[in-house]
Design brief:
The protein is an alpha/beta fold. It has six helices and 13 strands. Helix 3 crosses helix 4. 35% of the residues are buried.
C-alpha cells in the first residue's frame, strides 16, 4: 500500500499569539512550531501501522518553506520512509489542497491521510478539497480504520452513535482522536531521519481564492464574580441577567 500523509506546521499551544502589519499577518517571532498534532498522532501513526501490517510505503507531504524542515524531519524520525516539501507559502486551504492533489495525482497513492484539522486555523476543509480534486471518496473525522484488500472499513462518531462506512481505494481520510496512539521518536529513528530523502518540489501555478482582511485576538476574559454561599438571591439574579450559555 502506497500512503501519503499530509503534514503541516502549527504553533505550539503554549505560544503567545500576536499579529503584525496592522493585524493582517501572524507574528512568528518567538513562536515554537510543532507538527500539527492531528497529522502526527493520528494520521501519520495510523499510516505507519498500516505499513507494518499491509506492507508498502509512507511518504509525507508538506506545503511550506524551508522553515518546515524541522517538523518534516520529526515525521521522518517517527517512521515515514521519505518526505516531500512543496516549496511555497501555504496561502489558503484551496491553494494547499491543489498543491497536494497535484503531487498525489502524479504519484498514484492508494491512500491519502491527514488530520481532521490544524490546531491554528481549525478549518477541516483541506481533506475534502483534496478528495474532490482527485475525484476519489472522502471519509472525514474517522476514529478507526481497518483494511481488507482494496477496501477500507472506517468508523466515525456521529450524533448519538458511531457510523461505519466502507470505501474502496484510492481514498482520502481525515483522522480524529481514536485513530491511533501517539508515538515518540526513539534515538534510532532520530538518527535515521537525518539521511532519509527529503524532496523539494516546486509549487503548481495556481491562484488563491481568499484574502486575509484582519486577524483579531478574542476579547479578554472578564473578572470572576464571587458570590457568598449565603447570598442565593444575588446568585440567581446574576444567572438571570449576566450568565451566558456557551
Amino acid at each position: 500500500m502506497k500512503i501519503l500523509v499530509c503534514i503541516s506546521k502549527a504553533p505550539d499551544t503554549t505560544s503567545r499569539i500576536a499579529f503584525t502589519d496592522n493585524g493582517t499577518a501572524f507574528d512568528e517571532n518567538g513562536v515554537q512550531f510543532i507538527v500539527n498534532p492531528y497529522d502526527e498522532w493520528y494520521a501519520l501513526v495510523r499510516a505507519l501501522e498500516l505499513k507494518e501490517t499491509q506492507g508498502g510505503s509512507v511518504t509525507t507531504v508538506t506545503v511550506g518553506g524551508v522553515d518546515c524542515d524541522p517538523i518534516i524531519r520529526k515525521a521522518l524520525a517517527i517512521g515515514s520512509d521519505d518526505a516531500v516539501r512543496i516549496n511555497t507559502d501555504p496561502k489558503d486551504s484551496l491553494f494547499v489542497a491543489k498543491q497536494i492533489a497535484a503531487y498525489a495525482k502524479d504519484n498514484a497513492f492508494d491512500l491519502v491521510l491527514l488530520g481532521k484539522e490544524t490546531i491554528d486555523y481549525n478549518g477541516a476543509v483541506v481533506g475534502g478539497m483534496v478528495a474532490e480534486l482527485l475525484d476519489v471518496p472522502f471519509v472525514s473525522f474517522a476514529i478507526k480504520m481497518e483494511v481488507n484488500g482494496s477496501t477500507a472499513t472506517l468508523e466515525r462518531e456521529v450524533q448519538g452513535g458511531v457510523e461505519v462506512v466502507e470505501a474502496n481505494f484510492p481514498l482520502v481520510v481525515s483522522a480524529a482522536k481514536g485513530m491511533a496512539e501517539q508515538r515518540i521518536p526513539n534515538m534510532r529513528g532520530i538518527m535515521a531521519a537525518r539521511t532519509k530523502p527529503l524532496q523539494i518540489v516546486e509549487a503548481q501555478d495556481v491562484s488563491t481564492s481568499t484574502t486575509i482582511v484582519r486577524y483579531e485576538l478574542p476579547p479578554a476574559k472578564a473578572a470572576v464574580k464571587l458570590v457568598s454561599a449565603d447570598n442565593v438571591a444575588e446568585l440567581v439574579e446574576l444567572l438571570h441577567k449576566e450568565a451566558k450559555v456557551i
